[in-house]
Amino acid sequence: MLTFTNTATISGMKIIKIKVEVNLTRGKPQLIIIGLPSKSIDESKERITAALINSDIRPKSQRTIVNLAPADIQKKGSCFDLAILVGILKAYKKILFNTDDSMFFGELSLGGQVKRITGLLPLVIAAKEMKIKNVFIPFDNSNEVSLISNINIYPIKHINDFILKSFEELPVKLEIKIYEKIISSRINPDHQIDFADIYGQRLAKRSLEIAAAGGHNVLLIGPPGAGKSMMAKAMSGILPPLNEKEAIETTKIYSISDLLQNNIILERPFRSPHHTITRAGMIGGGTKINPGEISLAHNGILFLDEFSEFPKSILESLRQPMEDNIITISRANGSFEFPCDFTLIAASNPCPCGFKNSETKECICNNHMLEQYKKKFSGPILDRIDLVVYVKAIEIKKISDHHLSSNEKSENIRDRISKTRVIQLKRYHELNLTTNSQLDSKQVRKYCCLSSDAENLLKRASNKLVVSTRSYFKIIKVAQTLADLECANNNKNNNTINCIENSHIAEALQYRKTSI
Fold first, then answer.
1. Is 383 in contact with 514 (CB distance < 8 Å)?
2. What pTM does this model have?
3. Which CATH architecture has domain 195-510?
4. How many CB atoms lie within 10 A of CB 172?
5. Each residue of 34-66: b (16+ CB within 10 Å) or e?
6. pLDDT digits (tens, 9 = 90+) for 238-284
7. What values do phi and psi take at 439, rounded to 5?
8. In the beta sheet, which residues pair with residue 7?
9. Does domain 2-169 have CATH number 1.20.120.80?
């Protein structure tokens, strides 16, 4: 007897539909799985057999062949267990309902329980796009897919939940959670570092606000203890929450990486890898192709502390992802794509000893040491950084005279940035973009309006500074963010066309550095 069920597998971020074919024939009683299965799938024969026996179902004394089609694609993981079992149960006539428009995902225990799997969210989204009506998932994965609508999702605890039952008798369908209700009901996280707790550093805090508003990359340069790391960590508190599309995108990546704590991700990621990280750990790859730190920081922040200590090969590998917001990893077994639209925040000392141009301590580095240190920052990497800020150390005697009550709180800055992002979202709704930093040169010409004075100032500055074409457009994009921030600060949220003035170009230019 021949039966069919449906499941799917993940290749990078790409989902491939798998048809499970089960055939019962005369012959030696054994279960055979073909179709390029991995070791974990081959071991599922023992899990399935034990699950049947422990669920009071006696395996039939027939030769059972399971084919995972298409047969030329390598299948990995344990999520195929449930689909294979359902195909066998259909052959045993233990399932009454029609499974032609259903997909099954789940790992089996020896007792017949359906166990949690990784990467379920992208699988369910793909099933919805394939016009699949019903999806059967492990109960422990329920929260992960709670935002997916227009598809029937059945959380299963044990295989007995659907044996000899019709659709009407199946477990209750998963209740879809409305994203707006989740956002409104959640308690804002108590960020440990508030911008109001940071002494001085007005220019650096201003640059981080601009970066958060427009998605721009920032390099903070200053002596040890100046507050670079503290300000970078405080930036999480001024970023707006993820919208529904961004939340699903980010959760998909964490689901594939098995870093999801069984819930949807609502806050923007903050990733801070150590400078000893490998290249595969940063951009993705490894024996099992997994997303790297740049993809885990998608829609959030990638903070590289001690920027100069990262190997040059790793820093240079960031050039293409910073430009294209996507990383393609090619290996012998295929090509894999992962999104990586992150905001880079880098922090570095100005020299090996850390006290070049410091007002509190004398620098002990000679010219040779300084030249060698400068070589760690390549021109192409600096050209991709929108804002470079020199952070000065604050004298201890000034700290005691500083009143924190005069500082603006992260909550107020976050509100202003949220309004600025709404302006950009409305402006670029046709392009499906969210921030100014995502514009290409053609889109900059179309959507960024410069006054005649601003255009003249930019031309003069470009000739004097000898900036690259990329830098030229980055200055315009930063200036556009400044214009949007000014508009949001004046509560003119409906203005989607904010003309770039002389003051915006002037401020954007002061953050532009071509060397350290």
1. yes
2. 0.88
3. 3-Layer(aba) Sandwich (3.40)
4. 7
5. ebebeebbeebbebbbebbeebebeeeebebbb
6. 999 898 889 999 999 999 998 987 678 888 999 999 999 999 999 99
7. -70, 145
8. 18
9. no
